[in-house]
Sequence to fold (337 residues):
Amino acid sequence: MEKVVIVTGANSGIGLALCERLLTEDKSLRLCLACRNMQRAEAARSALLTSHADARVDLLQLDVGSVQSVLTAAQEVKARYSRVDFLYLNAGIMPNPQVDVKAFFKGLFSSNVVNMFATGEGLLTQQDRLNSDGLQEVFATNLFGHFLLIRELEPLLCQASHSSRVVWTSSSNARRSAFSMDDMQHRNGTEPYSSSKYASDMLSVALNRHKNSLGLFSSVICPGLVMTNLTYGILPSFFWTLIMPIMWLVRIFTNTFTLTPHNGAEALHWLFLQGPESLDPRAKYHSLTSGLGTNYTHPRQMDIDEETSELLFSKLLELEKEVRRKLSERNSDNEAQ
Fold:
């Protein structure tokens, strides 16, 4: 039976590179590009069909930062498919990144340069905002929208006849110190991206605890340092022109500088080939590239405790109820008008 694979944020970067690798690996799969911008999604589909003429590539309009968009897209998925084998949760945003220029140049010529580029620790802050649902935009896009999508697709993901996989694109920037359970949406902080990625790591652990018995297995990957549209938005273009030769040189000595989307998608592709029973639910699978350009995947234990991940799961369920209620009231008001 054909595998059904859905990839969010599939129109560029790591998501598009993953789609290319999956079609090369398995020509019979049914691939669905779930994207916010349909014009870019169509361009991505055309590019994939250029190299895989017989591939079956569907498009799905999905803005994971919008509750209504997630619910509408989920209904469309349930109408199209009878099951989902892989759900790659790759879409994400880092809005208005601000760089501490002094810290950047200080770190550039220090022994901490590799860690600085790999994690952004002490270097990056972001300016978040509320979206139309009253949620923090980064939290909604990077975490809650994907959580809601999983919840909506449970009838297709949790079936006795087969196992399904959820795979989160996380980051080395996911740090416990950036996340607070008292401020789950990171309304009062300056590192919403790091907070949201650490929360997705915790949620993956909780999903495995709650859903493995139902046939759903969750994994987390880190793509390494990859040059994508998100990355290029952090610094002015002339900065990248200056430092890219340095980064390619540093890559000889560190395996976390994957740099290209193809290399960054290594762990995502590797997980596609693994059986769920062989995976560690508490590990983050890292895409790595050797100095000679060889790609490989390596697991590393995540800094997560069961109690905190369980609390996050419970709070997300509570928020889901609240958001659904508000959406229902809003739709009722619109109908009354």
In short: The chain has a mean pLDDT of 89.
